[in-house]
Amino acid sequence: MRGKDENEVAWDCYGEFMKRLVYDPTKYGARMKIVCFVSGFGTNYREIVARNVNHHYIVFTNRPGCGGVAIARANRHEVIELSHIPYLKAARRRYGSGNIPRNCPERTEYEQKLCALIESRIGGEPDLVCLAGYDQWLSDYIVDEYYPRILNVHPGDTTKGYHGLHWIPSAKAILAGDEVVRSSLFFVDKGEDTGPVLVQSRPLNILQTINRAESASSQGLSKALRDIADFTRTHDIETYEDFQEKAGRELLGMMEIICRNLQEALKVSGDWEIYPFAVHDLIAQGRVQIAGRKVYVDGEEMPAHGYRADENE
Questions:
Q1: pLDDT per residue over 193-221, tens digit each?
Q2: Measured between alpha carbons, how far apart are the two ends of the chain, in Å?
Q3: Residues with Cβ < 8 Å from 202, sequence gap 6 or more?
Q4: Model confidence, pTM
Q5: DSSP label at residue 160
Q6: Contact in structure between 69 and 61 (CB atoms under 8 Å)
Q7: What is the pLDDT of residues 49-78, one digit of tens each?
Q8: Tell me, what DSSP letter sits at residue 30?
Q9: What are the structural domains of the chain?
Q10: For residues 95 and 54, what is the distance between their CA atoms, to the nearest angstrom?
Q11: Is residue 232 a contact partner of residue 147, using CB atoms and an 8 Å limit?
Q12: C-alpha to C-alpha distance for 221 and 223, rounded to whole angstroms
């Protein structure tokens, strides 16, 4: 049964940034206890499992009956279903839908319940928690419980501040004049996509991706991309919020179409590559250490953007 080891206790209680393995296969064995949190189709979970089926997987969902549950049952993996809706009902009335604070008491209570369910099923704490399309904020409670064993993937370069849901990070990259976009796989901390980055995907060229999408079905995207660049330059656009405020409905609509194409392409070439790689090729092999915000792979300190496959071939 896994609990906190001495190093983790020192970290949590005293903030001592001791370099330690995220997972030690010599101590805990080659078969990890991996809990995947899903709220939708479960494709990230699917890809993690496809790389290596020989771990102990449990799927947790806050959306009973979602697509990820069907995949888990087909894989004969245990499923834990616990809807967040009744737990957050009072908070939703108090704050309004979409405005529930990350650390409200109701969310903490919900996470205490889900952690208890998970730990009762596996007889201790999970070796790794993979947020695989999970649509709820994590409170400080669960981060304090499991850090740095919670992973998440984001469709953008978090080190550049390209935060936001779905296609928004790609829009921010375009407005910044970037030629490429990347996915980031990071350790979840108490901020919004601010945790230390473990892996970033290979770069996905924006123009080439849009040209391919245009050839397949979506016409006018290349011209729209040029129009957005011209508008950004002539109207001194510095942020996505500036663009939202100053751009017309047509240009905003084209930006969304462009970025949804980028997001879908990045999911395949980015998320589905780096998530399984980080879990199985790095963490499960005992290759990853962390100390404060510093990440080490094979004993070497990684830059802020983490391990990049295209720079380590």
A1: 899 999 999 999 999 999 888 776 666 88
A2: 37
A3: 182, 269, 270, 273, 308, 309, 310
A4: 0.90
A5: G
A6: yes
A7: 999 999 999 999 999 999 999 999 999 999
A8: S
A9: 6-158+179-203+266-311 (3.40.50.170)
A10: 44
A11: no
A12: 5
